[in-house]
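User: For my dataset I need records formatted as: sequence, then structure tokens, nothing else. Please produce one.
Assistant:
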Amino acid sequence: MANGVATGPACGNLVPTALVGGEWDGFTGSWGFADTYEYEYNGSAVTFTDVILYYSTYAGYEGWLPLFYNYGTYVQVTGDASSASFIGRYQYSTYYP
């Protein structure tokens, strides 16, 4: 990632605890975009659209995981695979017993 910038009406509320600009610059990861992503939940198929995916190898799991997506009226992603923007809450936590 390079030249990262957080833009939009909610970004002012993120300071001082969030990463709102170039803090992610230099990050390398496996990111992807899918028009649709479907999985089974409680015996029913759930379909997300316009999905930002992350490739994880964490805790014995290896595969693509949806990170930001649209589902019904819940919209986190605008654009397409060539130019996408996303907004959403994302938190990484670690627990040590």
